[in-house]
Amino acid sequence: MSEETKKTPKPARKVSFLEAVILFLIVVFIMLMGALKWKTATALNLGLSAAVVGAYATFVCHIKFDDLMKEAVENVKRAFPSIFFIMIVGAVAGSWIACGTVPFLMYWGLKIINPHMLLFVTFFVLAVVSMATGQAWSTITSLGVAMAGVAIGLGVPIPLAAGAAVSGAFLGDKWSPISDVPALNSGISGETTFRIFGHMMPTTGLGALIAAILYLIVGFFFTADSVDVALSGEMIGALEGSFNLNFLVLIPLLVMLGLAIFTKLPTTPVVFGSVLLAVITGAIFQHKTIIEMLNTCWSGAVVSGSGSETVDKLLTKGGVSSFASLIILLLIALVFAGFLARSGVLDALMSKMEKVINSRGTLILVSSLTTVLFVWLTSSVYVSMILNYNLYLKIYNEKFNLHRINLCRTVNDCAPMFGAICPWSNGAILAATAFDISSWAYLPYVWACYIPIVLGIIYGFVGKEKMYPTFDKQKEEELAALGEVPA
Q1: Any long-range contacts for 221-225 (C-beta under 8 Å, 24+ apart)?
Q2: For labeling, which of 97, 328, 348, 398 is most exposed (least CB within 10 Å)?
Q3: How many domains does the chain have?
Q4: Same domain, residue pair 161 and 299
Q5: Are residues 94 and 28 both part of a single domain?
Q6: pTM, whole model, 2 decimals?
Q7: Which of 17-21, 317-321, 361-365 comes out lowest in average pLDDT?
Q8: What domain range is 287 assigned to?
């Protein structure tokens, strides 16, 4: 009778809907406290959230930790090609600055400033510079502030000028091939940034055009015959003095775009080829050695003593090493997403939401709203994109037979620019500080944020079928087995 009986292990189970809601609220609490009170990094907050979900799944739901990790590892394996691409994007950022491509785009963007079109030019120039540099924050704190000063001199309301600046900077950031937002979207989905870019043309592309027209029309009510462009002149002079700005420095950009648009070559070697071209271009036109150019690929470009502190700050960036924090964040996010999926949190939440999603239009509407909502709840664009992609992927694929590129478009249309609008997000805090106004003041004028979302929802209900690529499960599985990403 003294023989010990072994306890039968409790069977593993997935979380219930109530448990999923509680876990989700805990995650929201951690993300909000981390951003607003603790001032901890998003990656750390996400890691704590993963630990909470993992611990609950292991000790309460009796799911083996090895099973949780297997799901996480599978996520990482699927995303590895995109992680590698992110590293190449870092090299693009550094080499394109050093060879003169980015300075050339900035130079001519500044040259087109017209005092009669201040709001339009503010939107356009900041979009061009942000797209060229992949950096919304530094663009806002330099050119954005300069344009705000011009606006004061012209009697243009600062909230309106700030709205145009935020629209342009964050539009360029979410559409730039060297920005972290498209890279993150590519990393969680396995789609290339160029394919996502193409599918955003009917929403973000048309939305940007409509916003530009609105800024042009409204801007004429606040213009004057003359404007102080001292800072612009200073920056133009600094760029002219620091770089050889002949048209040939655009070779890396033009070749990359040409190959991407007119050939069927894979994206990664095309972009890598543009880096090599940038190294050669920099050596020829900027009088740098090949070794110096290669160092910019890893460590980033360094511009100093140009005569403009703004130019020095704006163009000292890039390099593979500068994307290390994003790669770490992505890896942690993939682990977090794996834990959510294996524990059943995502399935439990979607089981209720599926009951109200009965058409493609409703699906686009609901996924758009929750993507925006999650930015406000977590104060993080990254977390919103990651969670919503994983929440809706199954229902996009299986219930409505929609390819994941449609979901990529939705989350990329909705999340990134709200990072500059949600008052407790880092982007909004930075912009509000730069313009010395509340983010609530410029919120109504960030038109390039709202228009694409409205267009996306309208397309969801009335859009043509060719806008919505379908999901072929067999093809996806075959390509995944070969380690390839579907085209």
Answers
A1: 222/118, 222/119, 222/151, 222/154, 222/155, 222/156, 222/157, 222/160, 223/115, 223/116, 223/117, 223/118, 223/154, 223/156, 224/115, 224/153, 224/154, 224/155, 225/115
A2: 398
A3: 2
A4: yes
A5: no
A6: 0.70
A7: 317-321
A8: 80-322
